[in-house]
């Protein structure tokens, strides 16, 4: 199955208690596509970049067999930039600078060859743009969506219209509470699923993830890493691994959804081990399967 990924491409200036990494390739769609590329080779991207997005950056995406024909390059502008500093616990961060640049006028145009994509992954962008993308797709088999507090609070009605057309919704625990208006995550899940998406994943950072379906709740653990250098993009990397597994297996059952959550968690655990997308650039399938098995072993009880 083909995947269409629509979201931001960016350059990040990242500071953590363990180092810094300026001019780091980032953006929601970048992390999603790179992560998913380890499971499927049929990935198409739609986004916008400036003249500072070089052949080297495109080359990284091409090296993972990601189709970039849908990425608009604005020669007289610069790529979206974000700068942030993480606190010692790595769970909170301060945004130091945001420069939307060409992303401020992003008008997603889906090329004709992408419009029959079977899986549509909508990264964290304006919900009005997410709807515009869906209006250009013929008959997707599955729509997966992400969002953030900014859109939940700033464009709640537009977001709800998007959610009516979404099959799988992925957000974090604080976003779930804000969107639902309820502090209890189980109640929040029920409220959010009533908005449209029948499959909901609530990410809880270092505490794992929760999967909600008609058949119940699945709780996935977080991987106990000794070294976490940079959590930037971990959530998008999770989404890419999750989507990639579903694409690879070609079926959506409760079992495969649960496996997808574990594969997504495995990919996210790799992401945080180095700055930016560096760790995602040199993985191999054996590493991924070993990490997936480690997730299985974390909660296994024999006898």
Automatic annotation (TrEMBL):
It comes from the Bacteria. Keywords: Kinase, Transferase. This is Sugar kinase. It comes from Chlorobium limicola. Residues 25-278 form the Carbohydrate kinase PfkB domain. GO terms for molecular function: kinase activity. GO terms for cellular component: cytosol. PANTHER family: RIBOKINASE, SUGAR KINASE. InterPro entries: Carboh/pur_kinase_PfkB_CS, PfkB_dom, Ribokinase-like.
């Amino acid at each position: 199955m083909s995947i269409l990924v629509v979201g931001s491409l960016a350059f990040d200036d990242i500071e953590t208690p363990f180092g810094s990494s300026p001019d780091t390739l980032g953006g929601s769609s970048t992390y999603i596509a790179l992560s998913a590329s380890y499971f499927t080779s049929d990935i198409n991207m739609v986004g916008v970049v400036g003249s500072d997005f070089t052949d080297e950056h495109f080359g990284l995406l091409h090296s993972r067999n990601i189709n970039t024909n849908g990425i608009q390059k604005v020669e007289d502008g610069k790529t979206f930039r974000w700068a942030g500093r993480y606190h010692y616990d790595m769970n909170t961060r301060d945004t130091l600078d945001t420069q939307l640049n060409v992303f401020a006028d992003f008008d997603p145009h889906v090329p004709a060859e992408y419009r029959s994509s079977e899986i549509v992954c909508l990264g964290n962008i304006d919900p009005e743009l997410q709807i515009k993308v869906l209006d250009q797709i013929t008959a997707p088999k599955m729509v997966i969506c992400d969002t953030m507090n900014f859109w939940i609070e700033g464009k709640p009605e537009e977001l709800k219209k998007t959610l009516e057309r979404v099959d799988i919704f992925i957000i974090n625990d604080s976003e779930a509470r804000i969107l639902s208006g309820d502090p209890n995550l189980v109640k929040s899940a029920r409220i959010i699923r009533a908005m449209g998406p029948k499959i909901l994943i609530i990410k809880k950072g270092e505490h794992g993830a929760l999967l909600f379906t008609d058949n119940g709740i699945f709780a996935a653990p977080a991987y106990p890493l000794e070294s976490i250098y940079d959590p930037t993009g971990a959530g998008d990397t999770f989404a890419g691994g999750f989507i990639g597994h579903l694409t690879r297996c070609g079926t959506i059952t409760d079992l495969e959804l649960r496996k997808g959550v574990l594969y997504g968690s495995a990919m996210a655990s790799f992401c945080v081990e180095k700055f930016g997308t560096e760790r995602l650039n040199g993985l191999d399938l054996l590493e991924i399967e070993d990490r997936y098995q480690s997730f299985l072993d974390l909660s296994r009880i024999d006898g």
